[in-house]
Structure prediction request, 157 residues.
Amino acid sequence: MNTAIWVVFFIIGAISPVWARLGENTDQLIARYGTPLASHEQARQATNPSLTFLLFQRTGYEIRVSLSRGFSVAESFKKLNGAPLSTRECRILLADNAQGYPWEAPQVISGQVKWTRDDGTTAVLTGGRILDITSQFLLARETNEQNFEDEPSLSGF
Prediction:
C-alpha cells in the first residue's frame, strides 16, 4: 500500500510541472520551464500592447505561451512525438487553467473539441493533438482589433 501511494505522488510530481497556467508572469514561466527555446514579439496597434510569444519544451511536450504585458494570456500544448493528448492530459490542463471557474462540458464543433468557462476563456483541442487555451482577455482584444480593422475611421482628418 505504501509503495502505491509513493508511485501516485511520483507520477503527479512528474506531470504537474509540465503545465503552464494562464496569468503566470514571465519569471514564473522561466522558473517552471527554463530558458525559452524561442521568443518573438508581435507589434500591435497603438491601442493594444504587443504580444510576446515564448516556446518551451519540457518532459516530452512543446508549450507555446502568448504574453501580454508580461502575463500569460494563451497557451498551446502538444506532444513532441506527435501523439494525441489523452482525455486525462486534457483534464489536467483544463483543471490547471481553471482559475476558479468551472469548464462547461465539451462540445464538438467542426471536428474540434471545445470547452468554455463562464468568463469567456476557451480551450480547443484540434485533431486530438494540440490543446489551445485562450483567456477571455486575449479573445476580447482580438475581437476589438478585428472590429477596428473592419470599420474605417475618419479620426484625425
Remarks:
- Helices lie at 2-15, 26-33, 87-96, 136-150.
